[in-house]
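Milestone M4 deliverable, item 7.
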Amino acid sequence: MSRKRLRMLLAENESSETSEIVNALFPDADGRLDLTLVSTMATLLPTVKLVDPEIILLDFALSPGDPLDAVHLLRRFAPGVPLVVIADCAQKQYAAQSLTEGAMAYLLKGYMDSRTLDRVVRGALERNTFEGLADLLRDATTGLYTRDGLLTMGSRAIEESQRLGTNLVLMCTLFENLRILQEGFGPSFGDHSLRDLTALLAKSCRRSDLVARLGVAQFAILAIDADALTVSLLPNRLAKLVAEHNEARTPWGPIELRTSVGLWSARDERSFAEFLDAVESNLRCTPLHARAGGEITAREAAS
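Output delivered:
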């Protein structure tokens, strides 16, 4: 973490494990954290106004009713503050739904440690930091990161992976028939199909992963803190989603993709730009189409 003091608001009941993990991540001696604790919903909103936090951690156990009500309340009261939900495994469905209601991420008790929390906090702060650079880092049509945005965030991800000894998986994909759809149905239908593909890319990966539009018809997903299985799982998941989409027979026609995947480990000496170049080069050399019901093996995807 940076040396700037981080203003964090943690809303939890007294039995929660979250505060222990936060204290392990930010030892008192290093002076990097201003942590404010609240233990009731009644004091949560006044405290948000008082401390102006840079990130909010909300334990669902604090909410006496529907836990999503607390999410809605915080999104209305503090819409610009990254919100991370903490939930029991029995509340996983609510936690997952909170992502569509404005939460940035969720963590499950029993599976949370200082490393996981560190990654989530860093992601929240980086996302907030780059909010003001949206015109530079975001594509106007899809809302995804641009190539410059992915290069910026990918370089940071490599630095973090080197520090933690973790892996990155990068998947590049080419929308092969975009020009045909635009010529046959018009530019507006081309934009519709681009937005469809954007939604499919988002559904195929985790919320913490980075999705980018690298060119007119070229896209990428950068999977953070991934394992080797992701090399095959990511393109397989996307291929199945595309197949289901195409079976619905959208009015602007099917989506046809070519895909290439690469793995970067903490022992890799390549920069992110070099890693991206390698995966893109492989995309041009080895066509790999998304197939309905077809399985993509790790060897195929990485070749």
